[in-house]
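Its record is retained below.
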Amino acid sequence: MPMQGDESTLLLTFLHNMGYVDESRAVEPNEISAALSLERCRVEEILKMLESDGYVASARRAGGGVCFYLTGKGVIRVCSIYT
């Protein structure tokens, strides 16, 4: 199992690489969970931590679900991984 930092980096990188970088492209935690083979509760825990750090933001869907996307600060964080 990856360490916490590895999971958050994996999640940030996934959001970036899939283009989930604005509210109109926000993705639900269950989709992230399935794509990364992480438990949904773990994904939600990581997303809350990343949101409090300003790397991701949440948006409400018309049906009431919560979706997440990478913020500008999150994009910079991901780009710093590659430099």
